Amino acid sequence: SELFAFIMSPGFSTAAVTTDISGRGVGLDVVKRNIERLGGRLDIRSEKGEGSTFVIRLPMTMAIMDGMVIRAGDQRYILPTLSISESVHPRREAISTVSGRGEVLNLRNSLVQLVRLSQAFGFTGGVDPWDGVVMVVTADDRRAGLVVDELLGQQQVVIKNMGERLRNIKGVSGGCILGDGRVALILDVAGLIELFEKR
What we know:
Blueprint: H1 2-6, H2 28-37, E1 41-47, E2 51-57, E3 64-72, E4 75-80, E5 84-88, E6 95-98, E7 102-107, E8 110-116, H3 117-121, E9 133-139, E10 142-148, E11 150-158, E12 172-177, E13 183-187, H4 189-197
Parallel strand pairs: 4-13, 8-10
Antiparallel strand pairs: 1-2, 3-4, 3-11, 5-9, 6-7, 7-8, 9-10, 12-13
């Protein structure tokens, strides 16, 4: 166990000779430090001739995701980056209303249903699609365009459970605390698309 701990020491390298390129990458000490910062632990197991196993233990209540911080009205939301296909500033003539589908965006000769967060969550404000940004998102082979006022930047967030009373809100998968102390809801793209398809 002492030898395994040794390879996680700052500056440790298995390279026989260090050069400007080899032996100067991010070491296991950085990995271990970041895991411990989250309240977790890194264990190493090794059998001669068999190989090594690295076990990362993190608290069950904690999950981290990459998200895009967006603003709609005076509210901030987190949109998972894995769900984002692209963002566009549409022209007014590219937006139309189709019977049974509501507002749609003509994106390269393909119709994308628009989802206004102000309508989904029932708050006032929010811009028209041509005055804001449309985030084209995908979930379960379905595509939609979320109408947002502004993109505020990308960041990693720690997902917080919403609790029993708020667990079943359609279109929301959790919450997080932003750097300025404000709470932001994490959007569930599949739930939002389903919500608008049922209208």
